[in-house]
Amino acid sequence: MKQKFYTFTILSGLFLTLSLSGHAAPVQIGTTNTYWELKGNTLFITGTGAMADYTGPAQQPWFSDAGSIHAVDIESGVTAIGARAFHSCGSLVSVNIPESVITFGDAAFAYCTSLAKLSVYWPDPATLSPIPSNTFAGGVNKSNITLYIPADAEPNYSSGWEGITAKALCYDVASGTFADGEVALSPSTAAAYDIVTVTIKPDKGYELANISIFEVGNPGNPVEVIGAGNSRTFEMPSPAFAVTVEATFRNVAIKTAGEAIEDATYPVSQIYASTIDDLKAWLADYINGFVKDVTVTADDITISYFRPTTTGAENGSFSFSVKLADGTIAQSPRIVIESVAPVVPTLPRAVVVPPISGATSSLPAGRYFVESASDFTFTLTPFDPALVPAVRTGRTPDGSDVVITPAGDGSFTVVVTGIRQSVTLSIDFVTSAATPSVDGIRANGQGIGITASASGEAYVYGLTGALVKVVQYPAGETAVALPAGLYIVRAGGKAYKLLVNGQ
After folding, report:
1. Helix, strand, or coil (residue 338)
2. Which of 13, 16, 166, 463 lies at a C-alpha separation of 20 to 30 Å from 186?
3. Which of 312, 287, 283 is nearest to 298 (CA)?
4. CA distance 71 to 55
């Protein structure tokens, strides 16, 4: 059994807050009739009435988990979001707000620098109390946020949400698992006119017989599915609705993995076959796309009789063999390399963007897909102007496959070039050539002290990466009060790891 740790804290002698990790049941928020529960990376707020107000993020009962909260789901019955309720939840991406909420407290989402999606359900936002001007303060880039609203409500949202893009609410798009196969729909939610990808995955020895995608609970209202084979698409209708899928599969002659590899057609063009290594990588990806339950790597492939080609020249050719995990060898016939690129199936590549602390990003954390060999571009704006981003893919030791270009507004354009394999980015920030204004930062029993030769800003982070405080310091000595704990402080182009012991 997983051990649980309980910590009781008395705040101002008024109420008792219970903070625990791995909650078995919802926990009351102070003396209100609202409750909180963290399941995975989603914080659920339930109950009735208003949430509690806080004077700072350290008062939040979920403060110790703030860095792991990626989504907040407020259920119907809650009427007010408390002041600073989610302040400094730096990894928070998505928030669901019901129609019952009519009041926002001060700085409710301040310093939520990863925030990208707000789903709301008011047909007319005029029913709300005025939203405080500091609701999204503290480096939150409102241009990165999409406000998902009820269908046909766009005219009512023409004011009051300046800088935030409004879009019709997304609806659930449900994938399905059936006898002898499955159908995956992506993305899992979509708004009107969004394009949804349909990926069909028959079990070994089966192929798709019939497929229907329709409104949930109403099979008589289908959507039009475009394409053939195991990769298709459809456009979400307007007005949009939740959709589900039904599919049947039929038995076909079962081939072994080796037989499937030997019988396949390989549409190889010169852009994938300029070298033997490129050709092996392409073959491994292509084979893994149609052979189930077998994973082939470039090292499993042997190329024979390789004769490359270039644009305008005669076709090249090659043959290959694959050693499978069971020791069998699959041998291809002679294969032509087309000198002019044929139409080939799109080979998507995943790019994983991690949660980012210390900067705003044009893209929220998540998984993105690009066509093989294409570039992936986004922008980063560090909070500390003395820092510049350092982005790595792990493909090259020196990071030469990533081009970072500064812009005049303090942002940086990041281009990950020529993506031929899925990558997970690592993002950090390093000192630029700017002259630092900080002479030193040190910890004391009650916080930190800053000695500076000029005024500037310091950014204080918890170990989870959540932004705890932004300090505007003048030239000279500045004392900053902090609760006991371990902090990362960035200022003047440097980073300091400091322990505040509270004594």
Report:
1. strand
2. 166
3. 283
4. 22
CA 274-279-281 angle, 5° bins:
130
State mean pLDDT over 63-69.
91
Q: One-letter amino acid identity for 234?
A: F
pLDDT tens-digit map of 447-470: 888 888 887 778 787 765 567 788
- Say how far apart CA 422 and CA 394 lie, in whole Å: 11
The SS3 of residue 332 is coil
CA 178 to chain CA centroid, Å, is: 29
Chain position carrying tokens 């998507």 = 348
Beta carbons within 8 Å of 417's beta carbon, 6+ residues apart: 375, 401, 402, 403
Q: Do strands 243-251 and 206-215 pair parallel, antiparallel, or not at all (unpaired)? A: antiparallel
Integer Cα distance of 343 and 349 in angstroms? 18
Q: In residues, how long is the chain?
A: 503
For the chain, report the end-to-end CA distance as a whole number of angstroms: 36
Q: Is 441 within 8 Å of 458 (Cβ atoms)?
A: yes
Instruction: Examine the pLDDT at 125 and tell me if it is beyond 60.
Output: yes
What DSSP string describes 449-471? EEEESS-EEEEEEETTS-EEEEE
47-62 per-position pLDDT tens digit: 999 999 999 999 999 9
- Report the SS3 class of residue 92: coil
> Is residue 355 classed exposed, middle or buried when 0-12, 13-18 and 19+ CB atoms within 10 A define those classes?
buried
Distance CA 464, CA 358 (A): 12
- Residues 6 or more apart whose Cβ sits within 8 Å of residue 194: 170, 187, 235, 236
- How far is C-alpha 447 from the chain's CA centre? 34
Distance from C-alpha of 297 to C-alpha of 289, rounded to nearest angstrom: 12
What is the rounded distance in angstroms from the CA atom of residue 71 to the CA atom of residue 93?
6
Question: DSSP readout, 392-458?
Answer: E-SSSTT-TTEEEEE-TTS-EEEEEEEE-S-EE-EEEEEE-SSPP-EEEEEEETTEEEEEESS-EEE
Contacts of 487 (CB under 8 A, 6+ apart): 448, 460, 461, 462, 463, 468, 497, 498, 499, 500
CB atoms within 10 A of CB 334: 9
Distance CA 127, CA 108 (A): 19
For 12, other C-beta atoms within 10 Å of its C-beta total 7
β-strand pairing of 71-74 with 42-47: parallel
| pTM recorded for the entire structure | 0.37
Locate all alpha helices (DSSP H) within 291-422, ordered by sequence. Answer: none
Read off φ and ψ for residue 262, nearest 5 degrees. -70, -30
Contacts of 356 (CB under 8 A, 6+ apart): 113, 114, 365, 380, 427
